[in-house]
Specification:
This protein is α/β, with parallel strands linked by helices and about 220 residues long. It contains eight helices and nine strands. The chain has a single domain, classed as 3-Layer(aba) Sandwich (Rossmann fold), CATH 3.40.50. α1 packs parallel to α3 (about 75-80). It binds S-adenosylmethionine.
Length: about 220
């Protein structure tokens, strides 16, 4: 533990691993966290579940352009980078502390990801340069006042890069299925919907709580 003040900084190690034949293959990501009011400074359960999904689907990610929205401590994007994706990590343009933390985490992990301040619903030049094959977002659907801005950005990126898919994990805290309404509103369709606990290893599931879903979303072709 390092850092000064009310919110000490901690280093967390996040591992993903699988068995291939008789061998275990794995990778480790180092994360810097600070448990403070700023939601982007610590790892949320949705991020652990999305990172596990990226790892399990790693053949899809190798060599692909990946953009993570609302990346915070960026665990899913960092796993994607470690398995060979070309990754752009983004968070709110105004959250300098979060963006600086992402920079430090990339350095610690010796990863050369591009880091971009990208606020949902804002049309900066940097947004027009992004042509992802895959967009990631862990726990980016938590404040309903931001949903339309988030989906405006996601719909733009999906339109800008055909064949692109948005993979998001969200914590259904209200019990309402707002995401279905948003997909219809923004001309999107659901390709896959999974219970987040259906594919993670038991030792990870035991430390996580909540109703977490993973959904893959694409443009609804007319
Ligand atoms: C609940 S945190 C999730 C962080 C990380 N993805 C995770 O799961 O650990 C939500 C993230 O969205 C970012 N965020 C919130 N509002 C945003 C906005 N309007 N534009 C871009 N990012 C935003 C926050 O800074 C924060 O990093």
């Amino acid at each position: 533990m390092t850092g000064t003040g009310a919110f000490p900084e901690t280093r967390a190690l996040a591992d993903v691993s699988s068995r291939r034949g008789g061998d275990r293959i794995s990778l480790r990501v180092i994360i810097l966290e600070r448990m403070e009011e700023n939601y982007g400074m610590f790892v949320w359960p949705c991020s652990i579940i999305l990172a596990e999904y990226v790892w399990q689907q790693r053949s899809r990610f190798s060599g692909k352009n990946v953009v993570e929205l609302g990346a915070g401590t960026s665990l899913p994007g960092l796993v994607a980078a470690k398995i060979g994706a070309d990754v752009v990590l983004t968070d709110d343009f105004h959250k300098h502390e979060v963006l600086e933390n992402i920079r430090r985490i990339c350095n610690l992990n010796k990863l050369d990801c591009k880091i971009v301040g990208l606020t949902w619903g804002e049309w900066d030049a940097s947004l027009f340069e992004l042509q992802p094959h895959i967009i990631l977002g862990a726990d980016v659907l938590y404040d309903s006042t931001d949903f339309d801005d988030l989906f405006a950005t996601v719909a733009f990126l999906l339109q800008n890069s055909r064949e692109c898919v948005f993979i998001t994990t969200y914590h259904n805290r209200s019990g309402h299925h707002l995401i279905e309404f948003l997909m219809v509103k923004w001309g999107l369709k659901c390709l896959k919907l999974l219970d987040g606990f259906s594919f993670i290893p038991a030792y990870k599931a035991s430390s996580l709580q909540g109703n977490i879903q993973l959904v893959e979303i694409a443009i609804e072709e007319k």
